[in-house]
Amino acid sequence: MSLAAYACDPARSRGRRHSEEAAPTRSEFQRDRDRIVHSTAFRRLVYKTQVFLNHEGDLFRTRLTHSLEVAQLARSIARTLELNEDLVETIALAHDLGHTPFGHAGQDALHDCMREHGGFEHNLQSLRVVDELEERYPAYAGLNLTFETREGILKHCSRANAQQIEAAQPQGVARRFLDGTQPSIEAQLCNLADEIAYNAHDIDDGVRSGLITIQQLAGVELFERFHSDTLRDHPALTGRRVLYETIRRMLSAQVYDVIDATRAQIDQAAPASPDAARRCAPLVRFSAGMGSQSAALKRFLLHKLYRHPQVLDVTGRAKQVVRELFDAYMNDASQMPADFAARADTARAVADYIAGMTDRFAGREHERLTGRKLLA
């Protein structure tokens, strides 16, 4: 694999929190990827949802399928830009490990519950999962991943939380939130691939659900130009294949746009190393035109899909499930497994336990504790 000077080289990794001997057949980033794939938190992603909750249909995206789609898009771009594909894949597969059940609704509800206890950030929780909560090795907690993977997982972080992490781990993964530098180019790429994947699959799931229509999407420039091209090139095409071909073309155009715009930024900045790239302004981006069209699509999905009355009704009930679970465990910690109940910081233990739940387990637990079934 040919790597550019600005790409992360596993042979020059900043290492792991606990020293380990090198593997004989795998790079450090490949080992990280394999540890993530075999983790408990990764398996749970198959029953954690995006927009539509797990009980609403078998074909809607889950956190797992979303993570796989992000990995595919990011690797395609990374290969052309001579970035480290293994690191890109690893970050993509791990970026949602800390997400709650019930998508962003669950996250928002849990943050509200935790306001007086330090709050809840799903990106910080993803780092907490790989650093502390996974229990797979005899010598340490967590997965003991490399700095570069952990840096990519921590996509967002409040200043207060960054200061706490920095105090415990000086010059660590939270430092950039205090000094204004960037993560690796591989991490930047995963962030944008996440956005591209979201927009594309939420169109697909939204149309499949019947909550948005192709006719409504005709008013969105990024969708309409490829929809028109599809009908022009395949006038006899009907049904879902029209939608799939439109999304395929839209995805391809975004990928090529990111490649061209990012390459131009890299050529201009000319970073000679990964650390030099971290000191540059963000390098991975859309062109101005594509960025504007992508933002317009996001606004459409926000107003027409994420705030659709049917979605809000279901997510409202999902938030209630999370809030009532939190209250039940805070009132009686013995309702949690013993290892959570025994921890001194009850609120954080409750947040860790709830955040690790799948949609269907959270629903069953809520019914067990309250005697009410809020989600079908």
Automatic annotation (TrEMBL):
SUPFAM superfamilies: HD-domain/PDEase-like. One of its GO terms (biological process) is dGTP catabolic process. CDD domains: HDc (cd00077). The keyword Hydrolase applies. Residues 1-30 are annotated as: Disordered. Keywords: Hydrolase. Residues 63-199 form the HD domain. It comes from the Bacteria. Residues 18-30 have a biased composition (Basic and acidic residues). It holds the Pfam family HD_assoc. One of its GO terms (molecular function) is dGTPase activity. Belongs to the dGTPase family. Type 2 subfamily. This is Deoxyguanosinetriphosphate triphosphohydrolase-like protein. The lineage of its organism: Bacteria, Pseudomonadati, Pseudomonadota, Betaproteobacteria, Burkholderiales.
